[in-house]
Amino acid sequence: MKTGTQPEKAANLIGVERTARILSAVAEAEIGNLTEIARRTELNEATVLRYLNSLAALGYVERFNSTQYRLGWEIFRLGQRAFSGQVPSEAVLPTMERLMLEFNETVNFAAHKERSVVILEVVEGRRAVKKVSDVGQSDPWHASALGKSLMASMPDSVWRDIVASAGMPELTPHTITSMKKMAAEIKEIRERGFAVDREEAAEELTCVAAAVPAADGGSSRYALSISFLTHRLTPESLEHAGAQVIAAANEIGRKLP
């Protein structure tokens, strides 16, 4: 009996692993054809096509233009369900919406989850040109205001370990790529109370963020940010945005358990 079930169990695990690899490849490609997805997964095209057909039938993948694939609506629905309930919306959204109305810029709420900075809530500004974020996306630790504000709430040994593990790739000419400069940045954030991403993750984009204080006084799990096109900021408005995002993060912190 056991000898019969072991190969079946192994085959099921292979199927699960292949499904995950194919979904990841479709996500990375955003819009990809069979050849590209097969190359990314290192599986043959016949195998990938069989999985894609099943995933498309279930709504996890969408096929269009006959030969191209992208993630389907079912993935979006599951993703929304995964992130809804992480934090009570009533504790976060009113504060985010108030910030958006004051600055008319995109406001993001993120969490430190499994060594990543993950966006949980987004309230978009109403300007024609704005920063667009997606719920579920990850921000870089070293190059985002959200990531740096969270790191500033951690003991030095912890944030240094995160940066060493995640790396500090140069995303723009302004990205901090050395541990010495990051240590100076963390020190400044702690003194000022908020973090600034000065076109470090994307050119023409400046973000201001503050960590949400933890109830136990330890490292923060959450952070709040406002994203500006750089030309819309002056030194005075940057300081004002910093003060407001600190106040908003403290307000949210009082509502969270």
TrEMBL record:
<dbReference type="InterPro" id="IPR036390">
    <property type="entry name" value="WH_DNA-bd_sf"/>
</dbReference>
<dbReference type="Pfam" id="PF09339">
    <property type="entry name" value="HTH_IclR"/>
</dbReference>
<dbReference type="GO" id="GO:0045892">
    <property type="term" value="P:negative regulation of DNA-templated transcription"/>
</dbReference>
<dbReference type="InterPro" id="IPR036388">
    <property type="entry name" value="WH-like_DNA-bd_sf"/>
</dbReference>
<feature type="domain" description="HTH iclR-type">
    <location>
        <begin position="13"/>
        <end position="73"/>
    </location>
</feature>
<dbReference type="InterPro" id="IPR050707">
    <property type="entry name" value="HTH_MetabolicPath_Reg"/>
</dbReference>
<dbReference type="InterPro" id="IPR014757">
    <property type="entry name" value="Tscrpt_reg_IclR_C"/>
</dbReference>
<keyword id="KW-0805">Transcription regulation</keyword>
<dbReference type="GO" id="GO:0003677">
    <property type="term" value="F:DNA binding"/>
</dbReference>
<protein>
    <recommendedName>
        <fullName>IclR family transcriptional regulator</fullName>
    </recommendedName>
</protein>
<keyword id="KW-0238">DNA-binding</keyword>
<dbReference type="GO" id="GO:0003700">
    <property type="term" value="F:DNA-binding transcription factor activity"/>
</dbReference>
<keyword id="KW-0804">Transcription</keyword>
<dbReference type="Pfam" id="PF01614">
    <property type="entry name" value="IclR_C"/>
</dbReference>
<dbReference type="InterPro" id="IPR005471">
    <property type="entry name" value="Tscrpt_reg_IclR_N"/>
</dbReference>
<dbReference type="InterPro" id="IPR029016">
    <property type="entry name" value="GAF-like_dom_sf"/>
</dbReference>
<feature type="domain" description="IclR-ED">
    <location>
        <begin position="74"/>
        <end position="257"/>
    </location>
</feature>
